[in-house]
Amino acid sequence: MARPLSEEKRKALLTAATEEVATSGAAASTIKIAKKAGVAEGTLFVYFPTKDDLLNQLFLALKSDLMGFLMKDYPIHADIQGKIRSLWTGFIDWGATYPNKRKALRQLGVSERITDSNKDVGEALFDNLHDVIEEGFKTGVLREQPLPFLSGLINALADMVLQTALDDAIKLDQYKALGWQALWGAIARK
Amino acid sequence: MARPLSEEKRKALLTAATEEVATSGAAASTIKIAKKAGVAEGTLFVYFPTKDDLLNQLFLALKSDLMGFLMKDYPIHADIQGKIRSLWTGFIDWGATYPNKRKALRQLGVSERITDSNKDVGEALFDNLHDVIEEGFKTGVLREQPLPFLSGLINALADMVLQTALDDAIKLDQYKALGWQALWGAIARK
Amino acid sequence: MARPLSEEKRKALLTAATEEVATSGAAASTIKIAKKAGVAEGTLFVYFPTKDDLLNQLFLALKSDLMGFLMKDYPIHADIQGKIRSLWTGFIDWGATYPNKRKALRQLGVSERITDSNKDVGEALFDNLHDVIEEGFKTGVLREQPLPFLSGLINALADMVLQTALDDAIKLDQYKALGWQALWGAIARK
Amino acid sequence: MARPLSEEKRKALLTAATEEVATSGAAASTIKIAKKAGVAEGTLFVYFPTKDDLLNQLFLALKSDLMGFLMKDYPIHADIQGKIRSLWTGFIDWGATYPNKRKALRQLGVSERITDSNKDVGEALFDNLHDVIEEGFKTGVLREQPLPFLSGLINALADMVLQTALDDAIKLDQYKALGWQALWGAIARK
DNA sequence: CATGAATGAGCCTTCATTCAT
DNA sequence: TATGAATGAAGGCTCATTCAT
């Protein structure tokens, strides 16, 4: 009956938090985040009871955003290599398109303030990839390796590429290609 | 002549900083670091004029420590594959032996407070690898790729393995082996 | 016609306030009081325009509640000593029966936020005792002393007994008896 | 070797705290206390790590101050009645001379933030009175009653007198006398 | 050089109160 | 009338840094 929580404000807060966390890490100040989101300091705590809550929800939101991005153009009917290449491309493009999201996610991934259980939930979002990879194992296209190892591998490679090629579009394209070769060499059988 | 700076205290401070940064990231407090090092709060600033100085010097010290570790048993007369495998093993072993050093380095690598020029200096420490790799290119053992790309690749893979296999010695060995296969697949020609 | 204020909610708020004030003093938060009363934060301010209003009304309500308790079994036809003893017993029993009410009253009695005029009103509730005491003076049973002094005396003694014997039923009975002896010795002529 | 803690500042802080607590109770703000003491906000926390520490130490300091005041002119060679009368007078005079100390002590006595163990220590300061009172019991001058009951009695009566006669010197003298009669009547045998 | 007291900006959070719904 | 989102002041406390000793 009272004013409803505004999804708009929640988003503004998460967006502002993304930017601040991208540069200052988990040390980003709630005051700056609130101001950047255009709301009063206290309002932040209406939406996120605690700074840790904000950080954790941001972490999940970013993971989920990335997942959505990867799935958007996912080629359901492509072969294994095509599917994995799509994921690789998606990773790189997401990071290049939203550098702050990537930086924020990177910082949070290293932070003690994200609960272990949430870090797990973050991983779990990628469980959808299960099938592709399992299929790769069965058809013998991929070397058999534990799933977390494989997803960690993609993640690490993509992150490295984005980090290394930061602010350099040409290098980015070069590394994206090199990275794909490396990745495929790393996981394909033979 | 006044008492000279004590190398011992400097080291104690860096060691304490390593531990604090490992858990709290760049937000680690100078007070706690000083106390853990067994010196007074103000003493820290005799050795490091600024917290940022401390952080940057710690970053370099850790990179250098890692480098020293890698070079210790480096097989100068082995073939390319042997040399690179030694580096891989070294990376993993260093991280497993000094988890706090690795965690601290990881946190600092992501922090805004490490100057770009220092991040470059950090990379440069690995320039010694130039020769091995160039040799690999010439003999055709390695696919030709930019040096920073290659070192970033090793780094990223090793970090992923250590992170993923945290606190699980068995998994660590498994991943170390898998990681090596992946790495070699990623960089070897054909 | 609009919905009228609900007496039930008002009471719930005062009851909740009693509990909160008992433990946190005047620093008790309106939010917690509202929640404990089962109403929304804003609703509290429909019934009490200001936190100070709430506190002051609570103060009066508690005084009045105590007064009612004292009068319930008041022996109108007893002699002076019997009447005063009844008051004494009543005081102690009220405090033992409703420890939160007593604690809250104690806290509020010390608080700056209760207006002086209300503290006087609080005292005035006991004016009904006028007659008993005047009678005591006339018949020479009581030493002549100003009324506020006498009521303050009873109050202080009872409060001390309750406070000292907190959570110890046996001690409470002992102190109740001792207190009565002391009180009577303090006020009776000769 | 560094600047030593200044006893002067510690006292200034306790004095300032006394004044603030006298009017605002345990809700007194550390900032106001620091400012009133003429030191920076942070300095307060050099001397008292926590607001609760400040409050508890203030409580003990006030109790101790009162005790010192009572003992100053204590008539060691007087009879029981003389000794107790001296205590009574001392109580009243202390409260009249240092109204803020008394108000602060009153507020703290009711506050949840003073630990139970400190409240006990507070009581213990009065253990010195043991002997007088025991002597009173033996010689039959005093009715036999538990010590905490007796000290509570004196305390409560004195507090009531001071509170009731606040800001009225004439009334104060009158109540002081009446209070003594009442007290003696309350505790003396027969 | 070493110490740790002193400082005040800044942090996260709570709160009383207002007001759109 | 009842609700609870919105607000920004204020609170307790921490911190990097300075400086008297």
UniProtKB/TrEMBL annotation, chains A, B, C, D:
Every HTH tetR-type domain range: 7-66
DNA-binding region: 29-48
Pfam families reported for this sequence: TetR_N
Keyword terms, alphabetized: DNA-binding
InterPro entries assigned: Homeodomain-like_sf, HTH-type_TetR-like_transc_reg, HTH_TetR, Tet_transcr_reg_TetR-rel_C_sf
PANTHER family found in the cross-reference section: HTH-TYPE TRANSCRIPTIONAL REGULATOR RUTR, REGULATORY PROTEIN
Protein name stated in the entry: TetR/AcrR family transcriptional regulator
